[in-house]
Amino acid sequence: MIKTTVRGLPAKILAAYASFILLGMYAGLLGLAWPSMRAEFGLEVDAAGVLLLLSTMGYLMGSFVTGPLAARIGSGNMFILGAALMFFGLAGFAAASTWVLIIITGFIASLGSGFIDAGLNAYVAAGHSARVMNWLHACFGIGITIGPLVMTAALSAGSWRTGYAVTAAYAVLITAVLVLLRGSWRNVSQRAGGLAPVKRVAVLETLRLPQVWIGIAVFFLLVGIESVPGQWAYSLFTEMRAMSIEAAGFWVSLYWASFTLGRMVFGTFSITLPRLTLIRLGLAFSMLGALLLWLDPLQVGGVVGLLLLGFAQAPLFPILVLETANRLGASHAENAIGFQMAGVGLSIAVLPGLVGVLAREINLEVLGPATLAIVVATAVLHEVMARIRAPRALAAAPSPVLGD
Question: Most buried among 125, 190, 214, 251, using CB within 10 Å?
């Protein structure tokens, strides 16, 4: 195993962090690029839903097969393939001359992101601490903070294509690093510490568990809290609330920065709240943030609400990923995490696309009430899941995002 002197972490974990920065950068580009992209290709506002749908199909395919694919070609080779596909997709965005080519390159980039996202989530959950998982997702937040800044600079310089070209260059670097580390990734079904490997179960056997479908639904809704404002806040601020593109890009970047800061805070400082309490608090403050985004009191409340949304939801995703093995057992966890990540990809396509349709029929001010409705639905379904899975045991356990 290749080691690094940075806090004693293996080089492959640092590579995982850098890969998640790439995933975040990719996710953070379209929201800012879309108005210019739509104008260039002469599209309706809700045409983004088509791109998101096809991209989601790629992501779903990638995330759904990570377990079997890693077993067949090895985790290292799967991660290399994912990064290479992301490069070709991002470069395609920068060079595409037609809307059809944009859709095709979105599919390719998202297929690669599915391999990396679901694969690294399963890898870290199988053999690393809660702190490593939390920082993995914090790195996604770093990337999705950088992405809008890159795109804002590209738009100011004259072209949204430059933002995709810069991100494609970073994908080349990640691919090269993953090639160098190809042989150092253990099988994701092997427990940490040299223990016996976990028995792998068939995909269909995992899908027969009702808890798996509830978990997919929770992740579907949870990520909507993140992706809907991330996709449409820039358009809301510039088209409905008279912000400049620089100011709107800045606040959207701060939204993702608040999201990232929350992950860092919950992963660094010792907070002794039970898991169930922490999840409920995160959802409650997310409701408040969505309400402020909607009502926009004093014409600054919308920005405050957006930042509160980012911070409040920060610990929720890592907690629920790490809880997968506790809810379903280690033998089902690898498959289930892949399915949950597929639910994430489906959410990113369906929910922002649905809000885009509502924005066309009403106006972009629908973002606030739509986000609030998604948060409320997430809270309700999570309570159903918590009650199915022994809520007293969940409430008594310490939060897995707090330390190792």
Answer: 125
Who wins on pLDDT, 13 or 388?
13
CB contact set of 59 (below 8 Å; sequence gap of 6+): 110, 111, 113, 114, 117, 341, 342, 344, 345, 348
DSSP 10: B
In this prediction the pTM is 0.73
In the block, which residue shows the tokens 């097969």?
65
| 3-class state of residue 385 by DSSP | helix
Count the neighbouring beta carbons within 10 Å of the beta carbon of residue 76: 20
For residues 111 and 59, is the Cβ–Cβ distance under 8 A? Answer: yes
- 137 φ/ψ sector (left φ>0, alpha ψ -120 to 50, else beta): alpha
What letter does residue 3 receive in the DSSP assignment? B
Q: Is 396 helix (H, G, I), strand (E, B) or coil?
A: helix
pLDDT tens digit sequence for 284-340: 999 999 999 999 887 788 899 999 999 998 888 888 887 777 777 767 777 778 788
Query: Which domains are seen in the chain, by residue range?
Result: 11-396 (1.20.1250.20)
Closest CA to 335 of 220, 204, 196: 204
For the CA atoms of 79, 62, 322, 307, what is the dihedral angle to 10 degrees?
Answer: 100
Residues 6+ apart with CB under 8 A from 34: 48, 231, 235
pLDDT of the residue at 6: 46
Phi/psi region, residue 390 (left: phi>0; alpha: psi -120 to 50; beta: rest), is left
DSSP annotation of 192 = G
Angle separating helix axes 75-95 and 66-73, nearest 10 degrees: 120
CA gap 121, 375 in Å, rounded: 24
Q: At what angle do helices 275-295 and 367-388 cross, to 10 degrees?
A: 170
| Dist. CA 332–CA 202, nearest whole Å | 9
- CA–CA distance, 326 with 253 (Å, rounded to integer): 34
Contact yes or no for 79/171 (Cβ under 8 A) = no
Closest C-alpha to 115, from 176, 161, 178: 178
Going by C-alpha positions, the residue among 95, 110, 100 that lies closest to residue 41 is: 100
Please report where in the chains the tokens 């949870």 appear, as a residue: 222
